[in-house]
Amino acid sequence: MSIIAKDGGKEFAKIPLPEAGTTQAVCCGVWDLGNQKTKYQNEDGSDKYQHKIVIAWEISERINEPSSEYNGKPYMMTKTYTLSLGEKANLRRDLESWRGKPFTAEDVKQGFDLEKLYGVNCFIGIKHETSVKNGNTYANVTAILPLPKGTEKIQPVRGKDEKPPKWVSELQNVSADNLPTIDEAADELFGVPEVGSAQEDEI
Questions:
Q1: From CA 125, how far away is CA 116, in angstroms rounded?
Q2: How much is the pTM?
Q3: How do residues 53-76 score in pLDDT, each as one tens digit?
């Protein structure tokens, strides 16, 4: 008996990109990806692996696409980091900008609990950038700023213990010997949020 695979012809509604610029956001998830294979190599020519994490934010703008299952839900933005507080690390740079103050030597020595970020508000800069690889345009997080005093805070819709988006789970579950690069894996931009609760807004 033959097993025939065909294109089912099902078309998914294309979600428009969120507006570029600065917008209020709230952290709705921090996910540990473990050691991921990068596109770089070590000096001896072997594959280079780095411990990666994903930080996710819901923004104040809602998806306006009636034909999509995500219609009316907040956009979710994500950014992938190497898990490091080294002086040149992007994670350290963004956390210090978010906190509005630098880490002290003692802070770095003790480490920073990233789970504290859930429910913390901020302003993020969003930029539309076109991929050289495939020509698609994506909305990327380019800056993170602390929330000005007196600004009304927004609460995350996605629950703290809710499962991460599919592409995050796939990266968490695959074998370390067969890991795709981060750039190849991040195809799914938005998760399906549910009602959750926020924690105190301090980092």
A1: 21
A2: 0.79
A3: 999 999 999 999 998 888 999 999
Reduce the DSSP state of residue 196 to 3 states and report it: coil
**What separation in angstroms does the CA of 138 have from each of 64, 65, 80, 96, 143?**
17, 17, 14, 25, 15
For residue 116, the SS3 value is helix
In angstroms, the Cα distances linking 6 to 3, 9, 10, 12, 152 are 10, 9, 11, 17, 51
Please write the tens of the pLDDT for every residue from 78-89. 999 999 999 999
Nearest residue to 76 via CA among 200, 201, 196: 196
Q: What is the DSSP string of 45-112?
A: SPEEEEEEEEEEEEEEEEP--TTSTTTTSEEEEEEEEES---TT-HHHHHHHHHHTSPPPHHHHHH--
Specify the length of the chain in residues. Answer: 203
d(CA 102, CA 123): 18
Residues 6+ apart with CB under 8 A from 83: 32, 50, 51, 52, 53, 91
Tell me the backbone φ, ψ of residue 84, rounded to 5 degrees: -155, 145
Residue pair 107/115 in contact (Cβ under 8 Å)? The answer is no
The secondary element (H helix, E strand) that includes residue 168 is helix 166-173
